[in-house]
Amino acid sequence: MAFHWSSLFKFTFLLLLLAAIATACFTLPVEKILKDFLQWIEQDLGPWGPLVLAVAYIPLTVLAVPASVLTLGGGYLFGLPVGFVADSIGATIGAAAAFLLGRTIGRSFVISKLKDYPQFRAVAIAIRKSGFKIVLLLRLVPLLPFNMLNYLLSVTPVSIWEYMLASWLGMMPITFALVYVGTTLKDLSDVTHGWGEFSKTRWVRAK
């Protein structure tokens, strides 16, 4: 019985958290917050900027908030080589944090969401035989929403190390492309412009 109530508490907590995140994406001035954050990195952090940018991926990815603006920002602020390294590492550690959350306290919630992604059943079976290859392919060809994929993969047998390496390699092409686009932008307003609409679209598709 204790386990039952514990699972119910975790499930309820995660539902409330997701509701709060969705509400924040639609109501809070997230575009301005992200712009101010990137300005802070640009003006005040100096050589610590790439590290802080990478770490910022963790809360955004865990909360299923699209982090593309950070990827573009990395290109705009630091150029292609440094921006790519910072964004690539940040995206990987963010994905790992979400994976670990889903494998631990969020496991009950993730399992309850599997019914919304019937195509993932075949993926889970394939992962038992070729975990690294399947995760790599899913990152290269995003058949499922990126943020939800982090959690769905957490309930498969793939190890955290295979998951991280495959995710890192598989996300490289899109990361490189977005960082390069970021290097062509002229102003931070261009980096965050349209984030609100993009975020809402991603949330609708993820549901």
Automatic annotation (TrEMBL):
> What name is this protein filed under?
VTT domain-containing protein
Q: Which residues form the VTT domain?
A: 65-183
PANTHER family reported in the protein's UniProt record: GOLGI APPARATUS MEMBRANE PROTEIN TVP38-RELATED, OS07G0655900 PROTEIN
Q: Which segments does the entry list as coiled coil?
A: none
The record's subcellular location field reads:
Cell membrane
Q: Which residues form the signal peptide?
A: 1-24
User: Which species?
Assistant: Solanum tuberosum (Potato)
Please indicate if the UniProt record lists 4Fe-4S as a keyword: no
TM ranges: 51-78, 134-154, 160-181
Report whether Cell membrane shows up as a keyword of the record.
Answer: yes
Mind telling me which Pfam families this protein's record contains?
VTT_dom
- Sorted alphabetically, which keywords does the UniProt record give? Cell membrane, Membrane, Signal, Transmembrane, Transmembrane helix
Q: How does the UniProt record describe the way this protein sits in the membrane?
A: Multi-pass membrane protein
Report the InterPro entries cross-referenced here. TMEM64 (IPR015414), VTT_dom (IPR032816)
